[in-house]
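Progress narrative, work stream C.
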Amino acid sequence: MTAAEPTILATCGGLNPGSWTDSVYGPLLMHAIELARVEGRPPRVAHVNTAGGDQRSVEGPELEAARAAGVDASHIRFFPHRNILNLRAHVLAQDVIWVSGGSVVNLLAVWRAHGLDGILREAWQAGVVLAGGSAGALCWHEGGTTASFGPQIEAVADGLGILPGSLGVHYDSDPQRRVAHEAAVASGSLPPGYALDEGVGLVYGGTRLLDVVSERDGQYAWRVEALDGRAVETRIKPRLLPGATDPESGFDPRPTSDFQPTSDSQPTLEEA
């Protein structure tokens, strides 16, 4: 099985700390697998850590987390050289491509040098779920705000453009991010789009936003638009995924929240 339609899950999440293993697949990563609709065999997930420089030290915990989740995991690596000769065949054989965080600027440059940008678009059209957190969420959009160039947050407007609009990440955990993203959208340096608190994800079917989900209670997504030279934010309350947690009380088993899709499959927005 493949996803019901071309699908992207853009998040501020991924692997979470484990109680027995070092890391576990968090609810957002598990939701990406669910969207792939795999039946009769272990799901195939390729981890791509280009944005973090393909550090081998993170691969062990990822593989351990994958085994615990019953996942057939692999890594696509470009440093010090590419580890997979037939990159297209490997990507198209996956159910989920999960892209981790780091420098989205470096990620885009390396992917384009190896032709992975075009392969990923082909895989998306074929039903492979594209997903990831932070830089692994920004990359699918037209652009976003990033710390790729240093501590100052800057706009990058040359994303892969599979999804329309811009994305901001770490909206609640890094005060610089919100200010810089609002300024970039207000000035027209970035097109309107969305922003994410920690633990929140956007689910796209094709290029339409279908769902807003979270693995943590009390977090939000934001629609960010420009009006008369200023940024206007509208808050979106996400649907809680199974296994989501409430930071105040721990485990929260509620699978749903107040998010309800409208008739045209766009999110219901609240005033911030």
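Work stream C, second folded protein:
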Amino acid sequence: MQKDKFKISVVIPHYNAGNYIRKALDSLVNQTMNQEDFEVIIVDDKSTQPLDIIRHYEAKIKNLKILVEDKNHGYPSIPRNHGIDVAEGTFVLMIDQDDNLAIDTLQKFFSFAGEDSDIVIGKYAEGNGYNGTQVPFEKGNIKNVNVTKDHIVSTLAPHKMYRKSMLNKYKIRFFDSKYIPVAEDQVFNMKAYSVTRKISILADKDYYYWNQRDDFGNLGKSKAYVYDEPWKYLNVISEIFKSIETSPVWNKQEKMRLKAIYIGRIFNSQGTVIKTIGIQNSDLLKETLVNGLRNIINESMDDKSIWDVRQPCQWMVLGIKYGMSYSELLDFKGELYSTNFLNDIEIYGGKTIRNMIIKGNLCAIPVDFLNHESTRLINLDSLNKEEVTIIVSLQNDLNISLPTNIRLVMENRTTKEQFAINYSKVLNNCIVFSLKFRSFINSKVFQNGVFDVFVQVQRDSKISKYRLGNNKSILLSEPHLWLVDGHNIELYYTKGYGNLSMVIS
């Protein structure tokens, strides 16, 4: 078997970046990986400006290739494909011309991938120009992600490292912009996800830096990057569903769940699918998009997968499924959001639902997203040397049935084990908890460390858990340090968020 020439091929699509590409190239010059082990492939999309700045780096980056397209494509898809085609590395890592990497990114990615990971997703740095989510990185490093639980559908940007043999084996490339002019990275990544042996997340530090240009001319900011014609939106969903359905590695349950996750994502982006329908240029095009979505939903989603769609989008999916037009969807939204329905809801399947009729079909519409249930820390005081009272109020917009139970939960930040106590009494519409430290210390889940404090509310089968402290009426009263059975106990508010936590040593 022929050995790859490099460990990593870095592919950068380029168009008229000028000085803005310096950050990307400087970060590659300074990589901790030996320059013998990686190559940098810049694919220029027929820039109208000279490439002098890029050529200046030929003396700084040992294995720098500069390819120039025969014509301008106007999108990064084809240049990225050509970069992948000529890559001689075991892995291909894609970055944009405006962005940059931490200096140890290549070395850490390659080492973390090992022989079995086909995709490595590195943590993005939050900052100016970053419009992604940090949710996939909250659990820290994950060697083998769970596709339905580790939020990989939330990160579909192309700035990842891919095993080239996997890309070639399954013919994974970006579609031409004539077919997929918007969200081309989503289609590419879902196809890659659907065939990979193992996806890994490297989240111990920031590895990728998105940079907002002063002239707002970032690659991929074209005015054409908008779902202003039905086919653009429908082609994206169709291709992603096709990748999910034909996956050789996902089981049936995972496939249905992933469809629900993706529909929830795309329906909730761009100001929701209702806004996307609304920007179509005519009533005919609006209904063309609605009808196309209806066909996809009816052909590819069953009742269970619709039930798993994120709550703010389920009513849209059901409305489209059962034949509502664009104007009817708008009316339905108005009814759902503004009608007083405090006596017309119930708990079902762990969700607060409202039973509504859609085109003659009785539908259970989850409405928890309309409810601003919250807890408020009213008071916290020491009863004695071993006990503290915590008084909390509970607000619920839906004003549904009284909770079956309310508990105070101390969760170990590292192990996630929980110690919970029931409330002791209700006083002036507030819930009073008495936390006895000795009982906590003698419990099976106790160990020294940091514990975060939550209020858990149960209504029949529906359980909600709220972080306690940020919404508060008081500051910590003195004293807030205790010594119980040789353990130091301190209650404090976390920096930045102001949530209540407890450290025991």
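The mean pLDDT is 90. No further action is required on this item.
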